[in-house]
Specification:
Low-confidence stretches: 1-16, 171-175
Mean pLDDT: 92
Radius of gyration: 23 Å
Number of helices: 13
CATH superfamily of the largest domain: Lyase, Ornithine Decarboxylase, Chain A, domain 1
CATH architecture of the largest domain: Beta Barrel
Shape: globular
Number of domains: 2
Strand content: 15-25%
Oligomer: single chain
Helix content: 25-40%
Distance between the termini: 43 Å
């Protein structure tokens, strides 16, 4: 279960936005948007089936050198059954971190080793459900061993999450600070945990770690792999247990900025292979399967949020008000994250106007862009907010009573399929159904 991306290329939107004027290709055109809105009004999330399929096939091919390889899609990134079913066709499993995510995976026919359950501060009922469906349970803390034993029993296959502490470096600088992260066990705890689990009946062991978020470099996975492979050898020597798999988790990022190069998944996989052959093979551990949990990489670039400019405001700055808001996409407000914006139909226009692009929440951080240089935007224009296929819709909320948008799939044949309807006021008030306090509410305008 990867952490959310608390570490972006910038944590201050203002410092970068006005420098970014490059264009970024879209997978939907203005003509297509005009046709879609005849049936599905903005705002809506749109996903590119062609892109999702091509990317899933690339990942599978890149790691084909490892017979046991499996990508466990991080359900929290994009918890839509239609999209998860596409990935299932390419052999992907589900990485779940809550009861409802487990229930979703179960309902879609995933079971046993197709589900990785990585939660923290986990309620007993979630361990019980994970055990019921045969999911691989990834323990976050050494104290969870007896907790799991008492509530659900210790399965034969078990995984433990490792935290090396300190600061994680790559050649381009500090990537993250595992020592401040709440996840995982120390090295000494891993030895104790494996011994204790073995005493309780575990026979197949896995190691899991996540040390950096949204890395756009071929170095991350190979460096993480070397660290975990060495740990695996040490654990084997110290405990004698059979280590069956190593889960590199997530952290492989996407280029949110138009001038960033995309990750080369084949180069990344080759780097992991070289580490595997230099560390695990000489130790006689060449039967270990490699697992990944690349929610963002699998889905991020293949989703966009389409919104319409409905207001303009001219005071101390120039504002464009949209019918989407931070309740639809909270990453810019929460992290200061950059999402590129294309004004549909004006892709070739000069970026000659400086705007704050905002939503309608009663919060001043409800901004998709600050001081962003864009083509002239007119009321009625459609804006395409890029790279929202992961941690976009999933992080939505209902503050100010704003409702979740619909999700649509652009099929490979050019047709559009509704894969989640828009939330209604009836949905919003549904949790008061035990009472008649809102019996006189009017839903029609």
């Amino acid at each position: 279960m990867p952490q959310e991306d608390h570490m972006e290329r910038t944590s201050d939107l203002v410092s970068w936005d006005h420098f970014v004027t490059d264009t970024k290709p879209t997978f939907v055109t203005l003509d297509q948007i005009k046709e879609i809105v005849k049936t599905y009004p903005t705002p809506f999330y749109l996903y590119d089936e062609k892109g999702i399929r091509e990317n899933a096939a690339r990942v599978k091919e890149a790691f084909s050198w490892n017979p046991g390889f499996k990508e466990y899609f991080a359900v929290k990134a994009t918890p839509n059954p239609y999209l998860i079913n596409i990935l299932k066709e390419y052999g992907c499993g589900c990485d779940c971190s809550s009861l409802t995510e487990l229930q979703l995976a179960d309902a879609l026919g995933f079971s046993g080793d197709d589900i990785m359950f990585s939660a923290n501060a986990t309620p007993a009922e979630e361990y019980v459900y994970a055990s019921k469906v045969g999911a691989i349970i990834n323990l976050d803390d050494i104290t969870h061993i007896d907790y799991l034993k008492d509530c659900a029993g210790i399965p034969e296959t078990i995984c433990c999450r490792y935290n090396p502490g300190g600061v994680f470096h790559l050649s381009n600088g500090i990537m993250d600070n595992p020592g401040d992260a709440k996840y995982g066990m120390t090295g000494a705890q891993m030895v104790t945990a494996f011994r204790r689990l073995s005493e309780l009946g575990a026979r197949r062991f896995g190691i899991h770690a996540f040390l950096a978020s949204n890395t756009v470099t071929t170095e991350y996975y190979p460096k993480l792999a070397r660290q975990l492979f060495r740990l695996a050898v040490e654990l084997k020597q110290a405990t004698g247990v059979h280590i069956a798999f190593i889960n590199l988790s997530g952290g492989v990022g996407i280029p949110y900025y138009p001038d960033e190069p995309a990750n080369d998944i084949f180069a990344i996989a080759q780097g992991v292979k070289e580490a595997y052959e230099s560390i695990l093979v000489p130790a006689g551990m060449d039967d270990i399967a490699i697992y990944t949990e690349m929610g963002r990489y699998m889905m991020g670039p293949y989703g966009c949020l389409v919104t319409q400019a409905i207001h303009e405001k001219h005071i101390y700055k120039e504002y464009i008000g949209c019918d989407a808001c931070a309740a639809n996409l909270m990453r810019p407000a929460m992290y200061g994250a950059y999402h590129h914006i294309t004004v549909a139909g004006k892709e070739d226009w000069p970026h000659a106007h400086r705007y704050d692009v905002t939503g309608s929440l009663c919060e001043n951080n409800d901004k998709f862009a600050i001081d962003r240089m864009l083509p002239k935007i007119d009321v009625g224009d459609y804006l395409i907010i890029h790279d929202t296929g992961a941690h976009g819709f999933a992080m939505g909320y209902n503050y100010n009573g704003r409702l979740h948008s619909s999700e649509l799939l652009l099929r490979t044949d050019g047709s559009v399929q509704l894969i989640r309807r828009a939330q209604t006021p009836q949905d919003y008030f549904a949790t008061f159904d035990f009472s008649d306090i809102l019996k006189n509410i009017r839903y029609t305008l």
